[in-house]
Predict the 3D structure of the following.
Amino acid sequence: MAIIKVTNQNFEAEVLNYNGTVLVDFWADWCGPCKMLSPILERVSASHEDAKICKINVDENPELAKKFQVMSIPMLVAFKDGEAVDTSVGLVSMSKIESMLGL
């Protein structure tokens, strides 16, 4: 499954109303570690067709960043059936991402 760009407008439909696990990456264009994490997320997405991964640009969607208390980026939040169940801050490995997705 391709990585989905999420905004305030589609957050509820893509993340909260999804039955299953969704990994949300809070990021920004100017963030070096975010740029380093992006290809890892792409590899996970390519390796696991059933994995749902979403990206939220914190500069374009500050309300969502505030709602989930994003203080540092990149920040990954795993949602299961609409509930936040796991969080990770900073650059992480592919195996950590797969673990957060339950793969």
Observations:
- The CA atoms of residues 22 and 79 lie 5 Å apart.
- The longest helix spans residues 32-47.
- The helical segments are 11-16, 32-47, 62-67, 94-100.
- The mean pLDDT is 96.
